Amino acid sequence: MINPMELTGKKILVAGAASEIGLAIITQLRQLGAKVVSLDKPEGNHLKILRNSESDGTVFYTFDIYENALIEPNLNQIIKECGVFDGFVYCAGIGGVRPLSFTKGSFISEMMNANLYSFVEMVRCLSKKNSLVNGGSIVAVSSVSSIKGLKSKTAYCASKAALDASVRCMAAELSGKKIRVNSILKGWVESDMKKDFIKNNMDLNENDDFKKQVLGVIDPVEVANTVAFLLSNATKTITGISLILDGGYTL
Amino acid sequence: MINPLDFTGKQILIAGAAAGIGKETAILLSRLGARVLLIDINEDGLKEAASCLEGSGHHLFCFDLSELNEIEPKVKEIVLSHGPIDGFVHCLGVRCRRPLSMITPKVLNEIFSLNFGSFLELVRCITKKNNFNEGLSIVGISSVSSQKGGMSVTAYAASKAAMDSAVRCLAKELASKKIRLNTVVPAQINTPAYTSFLKMNAGIEDETLSRQYLGMGEPIDVANVIAFLLNTSSKFITGSSIPVDGGFLSS
After folding, report:
1. Residue B128 is part of which domain span?
2. What is the pTM of this model?
3. For residue B216, what is the domain's CATH number?
4. Known catalytic membership, residue B213
């Protein structure tokens, strides 16, 4: 049987790997035959699991991925050691609930830095010669927040919208090398639920918001499937899109 | 290696399977292990498509889907003979270039009947109790013209926008039965329909094609996305319209 989503022989860089979604992505990509190079900050909840996965052949790098100045030298080193990549996944980023009255410039900058600047800097480095193959694929994990008005999420939503806008422009700019760039607008994923319920009870709307997802809360594996789909040859004519994966949330 | 697009044991109904995207989808699904039930008005075309299929258990049905009142008894007959449906793809429609002055009520009705009416009626019948299996997924073929303005495509564009809108509503309405609906949104795809469309409009520059910066799409590109949407790999994607457009919508 043919396998249109197989990634045999492809080398994929995954930034933000030490998260529940990141781990699901790495697992799925490896099960589709890809070689994965994972990347994240030196501290994080899932670092231990990630380090254990090294035994399966997943190569793992750490540096502060939100420290813009560190990105170029570190990526240069990674490419030198691992070779040219066929795909890049950005599933890093930070969330944040803050009412407008407290949304000062510094908070917006923090949000933009993690959700936009790091992504753009990484793609800038990968777009240089001998870093990402012609015909390669880039996937950014964004959010339905990018297209919805949500209370107390001005900075977060703006940062995701900025991410999607950058994806469209990069898609146009890198099309000459047939490099595709797309984002996924995910709704409530099971791993988000644990974070938000524990940390943020101040906005009552949050607790019922996930009920808008008529198909239920999303399993991280589903995000991984969609990432794999966009990385594969099955989507060779898809670029510049924001694919909605939200169990009906935005309907 | 896993195969997220395995359709073993699944039965997929394809309306408009004799040529173009419908034919390519039928062939792809057969290669992914599905049993395919093909409907078209063109008997020779159906037989030709059938000769390209892999595997067994496929069946052909030749009838005119613009006769909307004939659809209910036909669907009943198909399910009675072959069992409930796991997936449905609507691939038929008329595309025509008509300036407003030529869109008489009769012409508008014909276009809407075939492009949208047959879609809605088939969905209405297939989603009746006992006609489908759990996890039913439905895919319609829309068009970038449903979202962008174009000259002399008013009727066609409106019929596709109607399909996108209906899919959003039905995604919500049928979510409790775990039925998913989505559309794929192609720009110019290299099919017989496009070739004859070009002939009809010889000399007029195809503005759409010049803006899909990854170039002309092939039917297999659309078929791959349809397969993804039909499979449980996309089980949290519903009510969405996925562009398969070489970058057109973002450009």
Report:
1. 11-250
2. 0.93
3. 3.40.50.720
4. no
